[in-house]
């Protein structure tokens, strides 16, 4: 079958790889000059099923109010953009109940753990390398209050069977010796030994090369302008290079997916949640992180990627604006400066912003749509790198009409049939 994948971020490229492996003739179309040049370019690098948690959680509305008055707040709401996003924010709020949180978390963990296993299998099979490290991740707590607040997270980890270690400040240093100079700031840590890190941009580009070797065609510099529908099928797409035709179409355009399917009457609740990162060349490797350290105070992840440190995080409701804000940079610099001072050359750092394609329930949208040959693999929000390999295999199995290896009945757009609060099955369980 001829399949066109729209988008060559980590989600589009992994989709193309799995579809090609399933025997399809695949073309990937993207407006950028190469793979992973938008949100998949400089994320925080965590492959973290252990932290696969929806942002819509009980207590978040109150925390968001408190953050409004903090200088280094993890979440910033631009008033005008927030007004425009009121509908989506309302949907997110309705997912902040304990019941919705449990359903959404269950879905995310299911996809993320499957993804981590698929990524490990890919590494073993192909030897793909991307500055990966499989040394776990460490959530760093700076106060007793934060330590006390861990209890709920620990219960969830136990329930989900995720291995974890609760560490004292001294024990944190055994895993992350670069923290020695900031020991006085550390109250303790929660280590997830099963989590990994790696450079999503390198991974996506290397996988794209491997996909080309399997016969996948990449058409870069081509903008998708619309979908042509006749009856209940897509009969072609309109692009800046003219019309293109296939048997099936996969939308993996990140935050730009909703605008494309809107013309078909589909309401895809994916919002561009802005985040920032700094990439810092390492000057003193002994002071740098070994793996990923999550600074709970600022909700910032500090990751070792080869000879660089990636510091990423923060969330801003700011529409599609990707301009760089110096106040956010100051927050990233404060976090890494506090914990790994002197490790990197801050003057040579690269500052970046990207748009997380975020659903109100935190779960990506993977699977069929009411249009027969149109499929979605999008809305991966804060965890697209983590969830990429598993999402791609689920998508490929659904396109190929094969049974999926994990339950995908509640991952599709049909789950929004009754509004956007979590429901176990959605309207039509057959429509993944
Ligand atoms: C600061 C930050 C930190 C993050 N940290 C992590 C992390 O540690 N771990 C993790 O798992 N995830 C993380 N994420 C999330 C992760 O990066 C995203 O979920 C993921 O990159 C989304 O991939 P995507 O392929 O869906 O979107 P994108 O990478 O944005 O790809 C979409 C593609 O569609 C193309 N496109 C869009 N519109 C059109 C059009 N009209 N025509 C043609 N092409 C088009 C774009 O050019 C782009 O290449 C982070 C994100 C941010 C912003």
The fourth-level CATH homologous superfamily of the domain at 1-54 and 97-131 and 196-268 and 361-431 is: FAD/NAD(P)-binding domain
Return the average pLDDT rounded to an integer. Answer: 93
The distinct ligands, each listed once, are: flavin-adenine dinucleotide
CA-based gyration radius: 21 Å
- Give the strand content: 15-25%
User: Number of DSSP strands?
Assistant: 20
**What is the CATH fold-level name of the domain at 1-54 and 97-131 and 196-268 and 361-431?**
FAD/NAD(P)-binding domain
CATH class of the domain at 1-54 and 97-131 and 196-268 and 361-431: Alpha Beta
EC number: 1.4.99.-
Enzyme class: oxidoreductase
Domain FAD dependent oxidoreductase: 2-397
Cofactor: FAD
Quick recap:
Oxidative deamination of D-amino acids. The protein has 432 residues and is α/β, with parallel strands linked by helices. It has helices at residues 10-21, 60-67, 79-84, 86-94, 98-126, 144-148, 150-160, 169-175, 200-213, 257-262, 326-340, 384-399; strands spanning 2-6, 25-30, 46-47, 75-77, 137-141, 165-167, 188-192, 196-197, 217-220, 224-230, 233-239, 242-244, 248-251, 271-281, 292-295, 300-305, 308-317, 350-358, 365-368, 374-378.
Description of the molecule:
This protein is of the alpha/beta class and 432 residues long. The chain has a domain at 1-54 and 97-131 and 196-268 and 361-431: FAD/NAD(P)-binding domain (3-Layer(bba) Sandwich). Helices cover 32% and strands 24% of the residues. It has twelve helices and 20 strands. Strands 4, 5, 6, 7, 14, 15, 16, 17 and 18 form a nine-stranded mixed beta sheet that branches. A hairpin with a 2-residue loop joins strand 10 and strand 11 (233-239). Helix 1 runs parallel beside helix 9, helix 1 runs parallel beside helix 12 and helix 5 crosses helix 12. The longest helix has 29 residues, at 98-126. Residues 419-432 have low confidence and may be disordered. Bound molecules: flavin-adenine dinucleotide (FAD). Keywords: FAD, Flavoprotein, Oxidoreductase.
């Amino acid at each position: 079958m001829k399949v066109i994948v729209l988008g060559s971020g980590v989600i589009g490229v992994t989709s193309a790889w799995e579809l090609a492996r399933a025997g399809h003739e695949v073309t990937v179309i993207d407006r950028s000059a190469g793979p992973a040049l938008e949100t998949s370019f400089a994320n925080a690098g965590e492959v973290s099923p252990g932290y696969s948690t929806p942002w819509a959680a009980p207590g978040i509305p109150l925390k968001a109010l408190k953050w409004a008055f903090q200088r280094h707040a993890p979440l910033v709401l631009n008033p005008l953009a927030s007004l425009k996003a009121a509908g989506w924010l309302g949907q997110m709020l309705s997912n902040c109940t304990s019941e919705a949180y449990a359903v959404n978390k269950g879905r995310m963990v299911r996809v993320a753990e499957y993804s981590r296993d698929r990524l490990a299998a890919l590494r073993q099979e192909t030897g793909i390398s991307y500055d990966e490290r499989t040394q776990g991740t460490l959530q760093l707590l700076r106060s007793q209050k934060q330590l006390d607040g861990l209890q709920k997270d620990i219960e969830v980890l136990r329930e989900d069977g995720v291995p974890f270690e609760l560490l004292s400040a001294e024990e944190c240093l055994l895993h992350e010796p670069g923290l020695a100079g900031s020991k006085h700031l550390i109250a303790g840590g929660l280590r997830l030994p099963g989590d990994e890190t790696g450079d999503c941009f390198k991974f996506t580009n290397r996988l794209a090369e491997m996909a080309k070797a399997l016969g996948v065609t990449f058409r870069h510099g081509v903008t998708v302008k619309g979908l042509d529908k006749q009856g209940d099928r897509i009969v072609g797409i309109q692009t800046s290079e003219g019309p293109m035709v296939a048997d099936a179409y996969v939308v993996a355009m990140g935050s730009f997916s909703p605008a494309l399917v809107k013309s078909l009457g589909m309401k895809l609740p994916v919002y561009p949640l802005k985040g920032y990162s700094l990439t810092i060349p390492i000057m003193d490797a002994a002071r740098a992180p070994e793996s990923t350290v999550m600074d709970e105070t600022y909700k910032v992840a500090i990751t070792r990627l080869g000879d660089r440190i990636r510091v990423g995080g923060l969330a801003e409701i700011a529409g599609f604006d990707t301009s760089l804000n110096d106040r956010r940079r100051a927050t990233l610099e404060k976090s890494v400066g506090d914990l790994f001072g002197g490790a990197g050359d801050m003057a040579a750092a690269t500052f970046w912003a990207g748009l997380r394609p975020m659903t109100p329930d935190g779960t990506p949208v993977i699977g069929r749509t009411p249009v027969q040959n149109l499929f979605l693999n999008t809305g991966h929000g804060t965890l697209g790198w983590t969830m990429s390999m598993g999402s791609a295999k689920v998508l490929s199995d659904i396109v190929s009409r094969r049974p999926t290896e994990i339950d995908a009945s509640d991952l599709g757009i049909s789950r929004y049939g009754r509004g956007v609060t979590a429901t176990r099955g959605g309207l039509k369980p057959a429509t993944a």
